[in-house]
Amino acid sequence: MIIGYLNNLGNKELSRAAAIYRQKSTDQNLETKALSYSDIIDQLQDGKIDLALVNDRQDNLNTLNTYQIADASVIAIIQKGTFDKHAQIVELADLRANSCIITCSIQEEKAEYYYYRDVLIIPNQLIADDSLNETILMTQAGSGFFLMNEYTAPLIKNDDLQKLFLFNQGKQLKEKYLLLSKARNSNTDSFAQILKQQFK
After folding, report:
1. Average pLDDT, the chain
2. Of 73, 80, 148, 189, which has the highest C-beta tally within 10 A?
3. In this predicted structure, what is the pLDDT of residue 29?
4. Distance between CA atoms of 126 and 195, rounded to whole angstroms?
């Protein structure tokens, strides 16, 4: 079984689920690989991958089986000192003067811009950069902020940055994790259940 995943979702929970699944299903080979969103959809349709972990982009996925995996709180990461050091949340309106930096390749820009604009409803100027290290440096320098979520943000360990739960008009922003498959069977059901447990 081959499982694709969006790189910006990380693979910590996916790797844990894969290890558990391998122990339970010793007769099954299992491989994971990072892909862009468009590659994931294409490869699922073509049967090159069996499952894919993605964020919900509100696409018409009628031809694919969808498992709801988790709702992750969106976190804005900004230059330390921009807000009170004890602050834990920030309203999107309070970031309106800041650009939102997106880490993605040139090929992924269009899809990521759509996700930020139309799904997350981020009205800020969007800047794309293909390196997470560059994104972090730009943020440290006060050039904007970037978004992660409660599962991926802990991977950023940097004392010059501040992490704040992001709200829009009092409503907390969430990123929905979905597991997609072309066909549904006992293997995909089993893996989806194991994966879901890793986000609790």
Report:
1. 94
2. 148
3. 86
4. 32
pLDDT in tens, 101-125: 999 999 999 999 999 999 999 999 9
Q: How far is CA 113 from the centre of its chain?
A: 14
Give dist(CA 160, CA 121) in Å, integer. Answer: 27
User: Per the confidence metrics, is the pTM higher than 0.85?
Assistant: yes
Residues in the chain: 200
List CB contacts of 78: < 8 A, sequence separation 6 or more.
90, 95, 98, 139, 145, 161, 162, 164
